[in-house]
Amino acid sequence: MCGIVGILDHQRVNQQLYDGLTVVQHRGQDAAGIMTSDGNRVFLRKDNGLVRDVFHTRHMVQLVGNMGIGHSRYPTAGCDSRAEAQPFYVNSPFGIALAHNGNLTNADKLREELFRQELRQINTTSDSEILLNVFAHELRGSIAKSQIEVGPEEIFNAVRGVMRRCRGAYAVIAMVVGVGIVAFRDPHGIRPLIHGTRSDAGGTAHMFASESVALDVIGYERVRDLKPGEAMLVDMEGTLHQASCCEKARYSTCIFEYVYLARPDSILDNVSVYQSRMEMGKRLGRKLIREWPDHDIDVIIPVPDTSRTAALEVAKDLRVSYREGFIKNRYIARTFIMPGQAERKKSVRQKLNAIEAEFAGKNVLLVDDSIVRGTTSSQIIELAREAGAKKVYFASAAPPVRHPNVYGIDMPSSGELVAHNRSIDEICTIIGADRLIYQDLEDMVESVQRFNPELERFDTSCFSGDYVTGDVTSAYLALVDGARNDDAKTTDRGELDLSELSDVQARTA
After folding, report:
1. I need a surface site. Which of 183, 220, 484, 488 has the fewest CB within 10 A?
2. pTM of the entire predicted model
């Protein structure tokens, strides 16, 4: 996952882009970048680090222009170079910059096509650079050789070409110099993308962002989410154009956005993340009552921060006291996206400290949003025992994570997922809990779906193993696993063998 923003206004947009990126910082803490344009030239600043560390006054004053895009990068295998920070840029046609959230499942097949058939050199291991070059090639093919102006139809034809060729998940904001800001979402709508506006005496400004909260914080009114397979263009005059660019588009939104990734104050696809987490908590509480009516839980304590909403609803349903038992250090990054097991273990101890009075002599139910590797869960249970808890039970607001995600979440290899090929009792023993309760998949899906019935299907691949794009094979997963395990990340940056992966994709295309 990554955070992306794009703005076209009648005034300088550098500060707005910076503010927007800080709001979606939780989606990527590895690198950040902003590119702006005055309609003739582009201006870029990007580097590894948090938004506040990458941009200083001397950088901001150089980011001139009334349109621009920004990106906060989520660290994945093979992505430790500042050269791979986004946005990416190509100077033909017209000059195009692109910021991307997601992951292309046929990236290396496309890389080969771009090099051998379209004579384009890809300089990084990032699939976002591949996506940019596909879009640039398709845009060049949609315009006449002598044409120096581009309209909505040429842009949308280029997006249609991208959607014909690119598989996987992609929410994209692109800037075409002298043309405007383009935003589009893959035919499954796996990653979120939302449009908003703000009007004043100078006219109407347009903004696109990964989450609605980015619009709220800098004063834009949420208009609507882009639909799966939809593209929008805001031209240099501020006029909005929109088109459906894929006939077979269908909602398959990533449900992990609601479980963990998105901020609770965001609204994604007309569903409040906060309300969906409340509903997950209610359903988890009902399951506990149904399966464990004679429980001996004295207190319910959330694992901060994303599980608070669900934990409070569990406490209400069980009529058990809700308490804050852990204090969180706000200056430690999210451990789920920490590269390497040693870093994650070290970070958990630095991040959380227990309040002994809430644990001493009590049977405690800890509630978390999900369990991925089990590293954090086991250490938190250990902290609770050290604080004096008699028994420590553990509940997850999501089902067991048994499969890797290939659509932009850098989950570990299958063998490093604590639930992979294990029963709940086995997982319980590994993390050291006295009892373990998971949310049911059906209940989790209905917790989101009840707020928007149009969401007929979700990407639940990390729970169910059902990959909605239909092109993810066991051979592909085996290669991805090799790139994602901790040994690969600490030795060779986890880069895939491109020739092997291309062969696999060619056989399964």
Report:
1. 488
2. 0.90
Phi and psi at residue 3, to the nearest 5°: -110, 135
DSSP one-letter string for 197-222: EEEETTEEEEEEESSHHHHHHTTPEE
Tell me which residues are annotated as active site. 2
CA distance linking residue 283 with residue 289, whole number of Å: 10
Under a CB-based contact definition with an 8 Å cutoff, are residues 134 and 174 in contact?
no
Phi-psi region of 221 (alpha: psi -120 to 50; beta: other; left: phi over 0): beta
Give residue 315's Cα distance to chain centre.
29
CB 133 within 8 A of CB 109: no
Place of tokens 């609803």: 313
β partners of residue 204: 199
- The DSSP result for 407-420, as a single string, is SS-----GGGSTTT
Q: What is the pLDDT along the chain (509 residues), one digit of tens a residue?
A: 899 999 999 999 999 999 999 999 999 999 999 999 999 999 999 999 999 999 999 999 999 999 999 999 986 544 557 889 999 999 999 999 999 999 999 999 999 999 999 999 999 999 999 999 999 999 999 997 777 788 999 999 999 999 999 999 999 999 999 999 999 999 999 999 999 999 999 899 999 999 999 999 999 999 999 999 999 999 999 999 999 999 999 999 999 999 999 999 999 999 999 999 999 999 999 999 999 999 999 999 999 989 999 999 999 999 999 999 999 887 765 555 455 555 555 567 788 999 999 999 999 999 999 999 999 999 999 999 999 999 999 999 999 999 999 999 878 788 899 999 999 999 999 999 999 999 999 999 999 999 999 999 999 999 999 999 999 998 898 888 877 666 655 544 333 333 333 333 333 33
User: Which tokens in the block code for residue 234?
Assistant: 């805001």
Report the candidate in 132, 30, 129 with the shortest Cα–Cα distance to residue 77.
30
Closest CA to 67 of 10, 20, 3, 24: 10
Q: CA 253, CA 191: separation in Å to the nearest integer?
A: 7
Contact present, 273 and 258 (Cβ < 8 Å): yes
